[in-house]
Design goal:
Length: about 250
């Protein structure tokens, strides 16, 4: 049914950076956003734990009638997208991926960084993606503690800036592009830009994921003309106010 919601899922509030892009591109859709903040961060868990949590969230969203699922979490995509597609072969499932293709197209012989969670950096999915661009030097950059600060509503705090300065110090002036490989990171994009300077382009997969969602719904004849709506749900109910604020509309 066209009016059925698009389920959007993340380990917490990070996927709202993708939801923003979805709402901008497809304002007529009804969105049911589920953030699993009670279990965040996913990025430090075992692959099996991330799989189990992702399957549970997907089941909940499909039970609630979602016509499509957007996995707005790079960590969950890395660990579980193939399992979701096996379990729900008939369903429309879109998983966000790091914007490496854009980065390597723009800088085919350049120096690129990918900042992501421990799970995303160690999973095979990223290794396979990187194999396609052997000519590009890619730095893998972890950011322990960053997702927790963003979940606590501290994206714009001095504490977050200090953590980012520490993480990014070795890369200042060295990267052509930094791929933001976790959906929480667009919320600290300005601070990252301030630290790395104008020479480094910051890229994320949010807009590409929204375009892919539009293509899939179009093909299935499931685009909703509107009016649209957004419903937030979170396994930690105190996160709903921050969720509204981050969506910013
Ligand atoms: N937002 C998630 C991602 O895109 C992960 C954050 C977490 O560690 O829970 O990877």
């Amino acid at each position: 049914m066209k009016t059925a919601p698009i389920g959007v899922f993340d380990s917490g509030v990070g996927g709202i950076s993708v939801l923003r892009e979805l709402v901008a591109l497809l304002p007529g859709e009804n969105y049911l956003y589920f953030g699993d903040s009670a279990n965040a961060p996913y990025g430090e868990k075992t692959t099996e734990e991330v799989r189990a949590l992702t399957l549970r969230a997907a089941e909940m969203l499909f039970d609630r009638g979602a016509k499509a699922l957007v996995v707005a979490c790079n960590t969950a995509t890395s660990a579980a997208i193939h399992i979701l597609r096996e379990k729900y072969p008939e369903k429309i499932i879109i998983g966000i991926e790091p914007a490496l293709k854009v980065a390597t197209d723009r800088f085919p012989t350049g120096h690129i960084g990918i900042m992501a969670t421990a799970v995303t950096l160690r999973e095979e999915k990223l290794a396979h993606q990187l194999e396609r661009f052997p000519q590009v030097a890619v730095e893998k950059i972890g950011a322990p503690g960053l997702v927790e600060l963003i979940e606590r509503g501290k994206a714009d705090s001095p504490e977050t800036e200090a953590l980012l300065r520490n993480i990014l110090a070795p890369y200042v002036g060295k990267l052509d592009a930094l791929v933001l490989g976790c959906t929480h990171y667009p919320f600290v994009k300005d601070t990252i830009g301030k630290i790395l300077g104008e020479k480094t382009q910051l890229l994320d997969g949010g807009a590409g994921t929204a375009r892919q969602t539009k293509r899939c719904l179009e093909q299935a004849g499931l685009l909703n003309p509107g009016p649209g709506s957004v419903i937030f749900e979170n396994s930690a109910t105190h996160m709903l106010e921050l969720s509204q604020k981050l969506l910013g509309i």
